[in-house]
Specification:
- The protein has 381 residues and is α/β, with parallel strands linked by helices.
- The chain has two domains: 80 residues, Nucleic acid-binding proteins (OB fold (Dihydrolipoamide Acetyltransferase, E2P), Beta Barrel), CATH 2.40.50; 233 residues, 3-Layer(aba) Sandwich (Rossmann fold).
- 21% of the residues lie in helices and 31% in strands.
- It contains seven helices and 21 strands.
- The strands form five sheets. It has an eight-stranded mixed beta sheet, sandwiched between helices. A six-stranded mixed beta sheet has the order 1-5-6-4-3-2.
- A hairpin with a 2-residue loop joins β13 and β14.
- α1 runs parallel beside α7.
Length: 381
């Protein structure tokens, strides 16, 4: 019998073949109803090649796609493992997508996501990109656990907890395995972070409730990759966009010297003010990057882009290319946003010259990329 339009399918269970990984920490499957109509289901807690019983958690007959959890594994993948975390799994904490996946396989899945996004959104073949080594492990975690230096919980009457996936519901969590035992919770005030990178040690003042990379190995590997890609020379000019407290600007300023120029644009007022302390001689500009950038005069030899998850977007990318940089280092936390922006850069003659990816968020679907863009030829006028 055909269901009425808009009928909820939440709670329905289907035995499905699990397909490839998709961006967002889930896997693609298809359910076919009695009328032969096929609908995509984005399934969590599964792996490609598995056969599983999937319970629908969101969606109905009027929706283009459904969401579900693999609640029973009938044919497990060889890459499946028993989660170390007792709070990981269907109906439990939503913080980790891949606690059930062997660590090496997690990185392969992330590489597959990056490969698909680059090809679909920018027409770039990942395996043809210089420097590609897969999603790389970074020192500072314990086999994928105990890496979060900052962690936020929800207060409960008798303890603390974390939210379920795509829900306001909270479950009690006694110990989050991806959090370091000394992890700080966001609070007012300023803390000092120490970074050892490129053979140098520097300290940064950071708002305790502001942005800072949460994996202990992240600042060093990102700084060293950006420096290696840009190869700054004495006297060059550098534009650091979404500069935060000046992590990249500090190391770049020391490379270009007193005869160079470093401009750091950051939307968060507190972070921008701290960058003035952290980076002697920096021209710190506070404001939305898209709005503030036109107010900065001059061309630049080098540009660093470290945008939030939605990416830099066309308005910012097109302002960057008008400054005619010889190289751009793009630090990205979202592969889809990165791919879209790389496509815009390509329209203006800037090609992807090198790319590395780092597993800065083990047990989750997230990872970080650093891309090098260089002028490949004249762009459209």
């Amino acid at each position: 019998m055909k269901l009425a339009k808009g009928h909820s399918l939440i709670g329905e269970r289907y035995e499905l073949e699990i397909g490839p990984v998709a961006h967002g920490g889930h896997f693609v499957a298809r359910v076919v109803n009695a009328l032969g109509e096929s609908r995509v289901v984005f399934v969590r807690h599964a792996l490609p090649g598995e056969r599983a019983v999937v319970e629908i958690t969101e969606g109905g007959t009027a929706d283009r796609f459904l969401r579900g959890d693999a609640v029973e594994i009938l044919r497990p993948s060889p890459h499946r493992r028993l989660p170390e975390c007792p709070y990981a799994g269907p109906g439990k904490c939503g913080g980790c997508d891949f606690q059930h996946v062997a660590l090496a396989a997690q990185r392969e899945l992330k590489a597959d996501v990056l490969r698909e996004q680059l090809w679909r959104l920018a027409g770039i073949s990942l395996d043809a990109v210089a420097g590609w080594q897969g999603v790389e492990a970074v020192p500072g975690d314990d086999h994928g656990q105990r890496w979060r230096t900052r962690q936020q919980y929800v207060d409960l009457p008798h303890g603390r907890g974390m939210r379920k996936h795509r829900s306001h519901d909270v479950i009690a969590v006694d110990d989050c395995l991806i959090a370091r035992r000394d992890a700080r919770e966001p609070s007012p005030g300023v803390v000092r972070e120490r970074v050892e990178a490129a053979g140098e040690t520097r300290e940064f003042d950071v708002a305790a409730d502001g942005f800072w990379q949460v994996h202990p190995g992240a600042p060093a590997v990102l700084v060293e990759t950006v420096l290696g890609y840009l190869d700054p020379e004495v006297g060059e000019s550098v534009l650091d966009l979404y500069a935060g407290v000046g992590l990249f600007a500090r190391f770049l300023a020391e490379r270009v010297g007193s005869g160079g120029r470093v401009v750091a644009i950051e939307g968060d007022k507190t972070a921008s003010e701290l960058s003035r302390t952290n980076v002697p001689g920096v021209e710190a500009v506070t404001g939305d990057v898209g709005t503030a950038l036109p107010l900065v005069s001059g061309d630049f030899d080098l540009v660093v882009l470290d945008p939030p998850r939605e990416g830099a977007r066309r308005a910012v990318v097109e302002q960057v290319v008008t400054r005619r940089p010889r190289a751009v280092a793009y630090v990205a936390c979202d592969p889809a946003a990165l791919a879209r922006d790389l496509g815009i850069f390509a329209e203006h003659g800037y090609a992807l010259a090198a790319l590395r990816a780092f597993d800065l968020f083990p047990m989750t679907h997230h990872f970080e990329c650093v891309a090098l863009l260089a002028k490949a030829g004249p762009g459209p006028r």
